[in-house]
Amino acid sequence: MIPPFLVWAVLCFVGAVSLAYAVVSDWESLLDSDESIGQSVFSFAREHAIAADLAWIWHVLGTPKVLLPIVIVVVVALLILRHWGFATYLIATSVGGVLIAEVVKHSVERARPVYSDPLFTESGFSFPSGHSMAGIYAWVVFGIIAIYLLRGWLGVALGWALIVFGILMGPSRILLGVHWTSDVVAGWLFAMGWVLIVTSAAIWLSTRRQAKRLAVNADV
After folding, report:
1. Count of structural domains within the chain
2. Does residue 210 sit in helix, strand or coil?
3. Backbone angles phi, psi at 104, to 5 degrees
4. 182, 20 in Cβ contact below 8 A?
5. For every one of its 220 residues, what pLDDT tens digit does the chain have, with 9 covering 90 and above?
6. Can you say how many angstroms the Cα of residue 110 is from the centroid of all Cα atoms in its chain?
7. Dihedral angle computed from the Cα positions of residues 167, 170, 172 and 174, in that order, rounded to the nearest 10 degrees
8. Does the residue 170 lie in any domain?
9. Torsion over CA: 43, 44, 45, 50 (sign)
10. How many Å is the Cα radius of gyration of the chain?
């Protein structure tokens, strides 16, 4: 039987690859939609400074120079507390997420939005949004780990706060005018697909380990 998470992972990747094909093929409907939504959202951020300031927080916390040390600290803390499985889980989602982002970016080579009055400029290719992916493969995963490891309402509250924070990293990129909407959606799909694959593998390994343990106890 195929694990449900694996089915959802395949669907995520199919959706992401479909968007990549649409971008490479210059699908007019998608490009027009990106242009319309992007201009409207960016104009909103231009007119409301607080929106741009909040988006900047997500920008900083999704930047590799900031996020990488955070991931390392969390991994080290998990290892010290002997949560080997969760440490491996975070390493797998983060490393795989970065690799997927870079491979797709250099395969699609999509240009970033260009506005006459940019809030700031970002280098590199646009598709998919690396920050949107990091929001899923790092911050959402932080949340999942918090829910599992911290007891009671604290774990639930902190975990869901991290999950929501990670998801909202996507829209912040459109507010800042450095990504198209389809970049963000594809970033979510690629990252979620990868996290679901890692989760399926983790569940399979855990189930197999538990089955072996039960078999050994039965023999004893």
Report:
1. 1
2. helix
3. -70, -40
4. no
5. 566 788 899 999 999 999 999 999 999 999 999 999 999 999 999 999 899 999 999 999 999 999 999 999 999 999 999 999 999 999 999 999 999 999 999 999 999 999 888 888 888 899 999 999 999 999 999 999 999 999 889 899 999 999 999 999 999 999 999 999 999 999 999 999 999 999 998 888 877 767 666 555 555 5
6. 19
7. -150
8. yes
9. positive
10. 19
Neighbouring CB atoms inside 10 A of 30's CB total: 16
Range of the domain at 145: 4-111+119-215
Q: What distance in Å separates the CA atoms of residue 144 and residue 156, rounded to the nearest whole number?
A: 9
Cβ atoms < 10 Å from Cβ of 2: 8
For residue 73, tell me if it sits in a domain: yes
Distances (CA, A) of 166 to 37, 70, 108, 115: 21, 14, 24, 26
Q: Which residue, chain included where needed, has tokens 């380990």?
A: 209
Q: Is residue 35 part of a domain?
A: yes
CA 188 to each of CA 46, 140, 156, 195: distance values in angstroms, whole numbers, following the listed order:
25, 11, 22, 10
CA angle 166, 170, 172 (to 5 degrees): 105
Q: Could you identify the residue written with the tokens 């400029």?
A: 121
Q: What six digits make up the tokens of 142?
A: 């932080």
Say if 133 falls within a structural domain.
yes
